[in-house]
Amino acid sequence: MKTPLLIFNENGIYCEVADLYIDPWRPVNKAIITHGHADHSRWGHKEYITHHTNVPIIKHRLGDINVSGRAYNETFSINNVTFSFHPAGHIIGSSQIRVEHKGEVWVFTGDYKIENDGISTPYEPIKCHTFITECTFGLPAFKWIPQAQVFDDINSWWSANQSEGKTSILFGYSLGKAQRLLKYLDPSIGQIYTHGAIENMTEVLRPLVEFPSTTLITRETKKEELKGNIVLAPPSAHGSTWIRKMVPYVTASASGWMTFRGARRRRAIDKGFVLSDHCDWYGLLAAIEATGAEKIISTHGYTDIFSKYLREQGYDARTEKTQYEGELSELETSKEKETTV
Fold first, then answer.
1. How far apart are CA 156 and CA 335, in angstroms?
2. H helices within 216-270, ranges in order?
């Protein structure tokens, strides 16, 4: 029986012919990395290969590593296997990985979304025979509204809080979500303050994207300075001593999980904005159709439900277990959990 071009083992997604892994979750010799989130780019590999805009991101997060960068659509061969990076539209520097050997083409998406967010290189469908897709939000209940409407709602929420003399605290992951939020906040309403984890990551990305100016919250920041303004903070800051000086404040979270009211209640959030860096149900189906692939492998998310639906539509669909968890595992590192006040 022919060995598949990519296999799933205890270390990650392995290409035996090239002897390398894609987004491995255990230390390996050679790793191709799709993007900078902690569940896909882990410390300990001897060699990292990633898109060139992701190089400073993973260096910031992982420290002194042996990493090289490639451009989108640039092909490179390892033991007669051809690899290339293609835009995933997930966050800045995110990629799909195209793998070709003897006429067979596989594509691993990592994490992706098809809506153009204005800061990431937009997603591009890649023709292939086998498509490995996440399905973090692989249920029909997940249907995103255009981000322009979401950002209008966020700015209106901030303005309303300001009129009541309250500080607005908006939670978003320090890499990706925070910069997407920052890009579309309206600085004419007031000042934008940041938690240290978000400020540090945004400084890494400022050479790539034009963002509004921000002010880092420090121990010297006074409560009166924050009143009526907005604070961008990672989810890990919620409920911490760090936000006590901001009373009176109103909290909000921007996530695909805010589709469900129960998620907001469980997280003790005052307001939820439905904004995800992943595809909704309809985006997943559109992406799969555009590839022309017959074989679909579903990884993290609602894998069983999603694969069952695909089989009913005539696809050769199955699931594989990974250590990727989509929006649930884009958590802050211990370094990023440190507070600055």
1. 33
2. 223-226, 261-266
Do the domains at 7-141+277-328 and 147-273 have one common CATH topology?
no
Across 194-226, b (16+ Cβ under 10 Å) vs e yields bbbbbbbbbebbeeebebeebeebeeebeeeeb
Considering only CA atoms, which of 65, 75, 56, 72 is closest in space to residue 30?
65
pTM: predicted TM-score of the whole model, two decimal places:
0.93
Task: Enumerate the domain spans of the chain.
Answer: 7-141+277-328, 147-273
Record: fold of 147-273 = Rossmann fold (3.40.50)
Number of residues assigned to the chain? 341
pLDDT tens by residue, the chain, 341 residues? 678 999 999 999 999 999 999 999 999 999 999 999 999 999 999 999 999 999 999 999 999 999 999 999 999 999 999 999 999 999 999 999 999 999 999 999 999 999 999 999 999 999 999 999 999 999 999 999 999 999 999 999 999 999 999 999 999 999 999 999 999 999 999 999 999 999 999 999 999 999 999 999 999 999 899 999 999 999 989 888 888 889 999 999 999 999 987 666 666 789 999 999 999 999 999 999 999 999 999 999 999 999 999 999 999 999 999 999 777 644 444 344 443 44
Provide the β-strand partners of residue 8: 13
CATH placement of domain 7-141+277-328: 3.60.15.10
Encoded amino acid at 334, one letter: S
How far apart are alpha carbons 318 and 299 in whole angstroms?
9
